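User: Sequence recovery, please. Input:
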């Protein structure tokens, strides 16, 4: 005689009820499950522990829980969760956001250079123009800068003794936390005049810090 546990019996009954509710076949159930929201469990500091479309009493008892739609959770699929965190709204603990985990910028070696915040402005005279869209950061060299290196082989070119330009996307007006960093070589800039780097998220509204290698920077945010 085979004994069926109460838990197994409950699962079977739940399955039969779900099957009846959604057309009586497996295809209907699959479509229903596909459209369900995701449950995500995280620690108080935002560290992601687990996520599933099924409830989990044990996880809910030990960790904070957030609910996201399929579109909202898609940023985490096939990604390293350690690169992201869950941020809880300052005024409403039930409102949660998925964001790129900040990195303490003081851990970055800047070779004794001071970080400089690139201001948003509309300067017509600039050496480097930085454009930030919802998906990419673009660096464009002014024609006059290109001319300055006309007699220098791009592979040998340096700016203030450096061959690369580091760009740090940080919290607004606050370099304490960095969301993303990009390093662009002077070789890329001189060869292409415009260098486009894809970003892992929409960082418009953040600030950009760099080393004061060029005399004039221009920073604009694109509408899309």
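Assistant: Recovered sequence (224 residues):
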């Amino acid at each position: 005689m085979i004994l069926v546990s109460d838990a197994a019996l409950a699962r079977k009954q739940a399955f039969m009820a779900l099957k009846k509710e959604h057309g009586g076949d497996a295809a209907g159930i699959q479509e229903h499950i596909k459209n369900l929201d995701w449950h995500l469990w995280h620690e108080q500091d935002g560290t992601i522990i687990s996520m599933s479309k099924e409830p989990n009493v044990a996880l809910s008892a030990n960790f904070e829980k957030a609910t996201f739609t399929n579109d909202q959770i898609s940023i985490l699929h096939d990604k390293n969760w350690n690169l992201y965190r869950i941020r809880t709204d300052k005024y409403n603990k039930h409102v949660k956001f998925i964001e790129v985990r900040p990195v303490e910028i003081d851990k970055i070696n800047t070779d004794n250079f001071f970080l400089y915040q690139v201001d948003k402005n509309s300067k017509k005279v600039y050496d480097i123009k930085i454009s930030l869209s919802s998906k990419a950061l673009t660096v464009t060299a002014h024609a006059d800068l290109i001319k300055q290196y006309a007699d220098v082989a791009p592979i040998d070119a340096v700016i203030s003794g450096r061959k690369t330009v580091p760009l740090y996307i940080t919290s607004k007006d606050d370099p304490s936390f960095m969301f993303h960093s990009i390093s662009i070589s002077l070789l890329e800039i001189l060869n292409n005049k415009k260098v486009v780097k894809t970003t892992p998220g929409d960082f418009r509204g953040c600030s950009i810090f760099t080393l004061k290698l060029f005399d004039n920077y221009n920073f604009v945010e694109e509408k899309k």
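The chain has six helices and 14 strands.
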